[in-house]
């Protein structure tokens, strides 16, 4: 396969440099594209000044939002006739053997999309409750199973005819809220693409102290619930958002107490049902939670 690894970035130079160095150390055969979502080209110096064995291609997507940045990567991959496109985030690093596992799984599993795990690594200053509560721990699955929550933080995508013809792309209405990736993969699945999980293809995500705060987690929960309702509405189940949202709100604290008694501090993660439920109710009545606003 001819594979392009794409990184969408916005004013995160230290994280971008860390990721590019990890990609440069991977033995896989792939090219690297950096999509700078800053019209002021703030990522250019990181790309231009870094001493990389595998020189990244640098492009600018001036339209703000995660969806335009990802679509720019799609259009570049299509224009250069790549077979597959990989997305990783600029707050991550790849681990040894990552690309081999990801690309091999696409072939061995005859899959059009393969997702891998994202493992949290906490930076200095992250509170103990945030580490122990499991707020940043993502569920893992057996290799070959269908991913429950496909995302663009660690994924390889075959450039299918639907993508090449523009039938499927990242919807701009999710640009400032997130959720564009889940919508994208659900549309691919609807059109017949096969999605699979590869548990051996891991990346590490760095969690800084400012992100590990009650305020940030509340906003993230609101956004996740908000996007859930919008996806339910697109699928024709929008009517269920209110009862489900109310149920999550009602059960959040009892579940947190019960699981804390059974599992210790990790049980407090159940409190995320509260902002997620409120976010669902917000979207049911036309509201949006903006996470990627400028």
UniProtKB/TrEMBL annotation:
<keyword id="KW-1133">Transmembrane helix</keyword>
<keyword id="KW-0472">Membrane</keyword>
<keyword id="KW-0328">Glycosyltransferase</keyword>
<feature type="transmembrane region" description="Helical">
    <location>
        <begin position="237"/>
        <end position="258"/>
    </location>
</feature>
<dbReference type="Pfam" id="PF00535">
    <property type="entry name" value="Glycos_transf_2"/>
</dbReference>
<dbReference type="InterPro" id="IPR029044">
    <property type="entry name" value="Nucleotide-diphossugar_trans"/>
</dbReference>
<feature type="domain" description="Glycosyltransferase 2-like">
    <location>
        <begin position="5"/>
        <end position="138"/>
    </location>
</feature>
<dbReference type="InterPro" id="IPR001173">
    <property type="entry name" value="Glyco_trans_2-like"/>
</dbReference>
<dbReference type="GO" id="GO:0016757">
    <property type="term" value="F:glycosyltransferase activity"/>
</dbReference>
<keyword id="KW-0808">Transferase</keyword>
<comment type="similarity">
    <text>Belongs to the glycosyltransferase 2 family.</text>
</comment>
<comment type="pathway">
    <text>Cell wall biogenesis; cell wall polysaccharide biosynthesis.</text>
</comment>
<protein>
    <submittedName>
        <fullName>Glycosyltransferase family 2 protein</fullName>
    </submittedName>
</protein>
<keyword id="KW-0812">Transmembrane</keyword>
């Amino acid at each position: 396969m001819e594979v392009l690894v794409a990184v969408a970035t916005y004013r995160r130079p230290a994280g971008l440099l860390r990721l590019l160095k990890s990609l440069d150390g991977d033995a896989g055969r792939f090219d690297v594209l950096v999509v700078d979502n800053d019209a002021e080209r703030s990522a250019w110096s990181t790309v231009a000044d870094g001493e990389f064995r595998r020189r990244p291609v640098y492009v600018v997507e001036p339209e703000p939002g995660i969806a335009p940045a990802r679509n720019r990567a799609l259009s570049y991959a299509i224009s250069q006739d790549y077979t597959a496109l990989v997305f990783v985030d600029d707050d991550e690093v790849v681990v040894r053997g990552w690309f081999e596992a990801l690309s091999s799984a696409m072939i061995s599993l005859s899959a059009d999309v393969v997702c891998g795990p994202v493992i949290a690594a906490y930076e200095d200053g992250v509170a103990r409750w945030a580490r122990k509560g499991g707020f940043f721990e993502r569920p893992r699955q057996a290799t070959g199973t269908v991913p429950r929550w496909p995302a663009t933080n660690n994924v390889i995508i075959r450039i299918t005819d639907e993508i090449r013809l523009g039938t499927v792309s990242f919807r701009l209405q999710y640009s400032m809220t997130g959720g564009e990736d889940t919508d994208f993969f659900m549309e691919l699945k609807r059109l017949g693409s096969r999605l699979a999980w590869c548990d051996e293809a891991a990346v590490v995500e760095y969690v800084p102290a400012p992100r590990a705060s009650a305020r940030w987690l509340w906003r993230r929960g609101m956004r996740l619930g908000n996007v859930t309702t919008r996806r339910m509405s697109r699928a024709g189940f929008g009517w269920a958002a209110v009862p489900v949202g109310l149920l999550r709100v009602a059960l959040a604290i009892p579940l947190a107490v019960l699981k804390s008694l059974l599992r210790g501090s990790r049980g407090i993660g159940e409190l995320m049902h509260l902002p997620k439920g409120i976010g669902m109710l917000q979207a049911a009545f036309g509201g949006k939670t903006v996470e990627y606003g400028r």
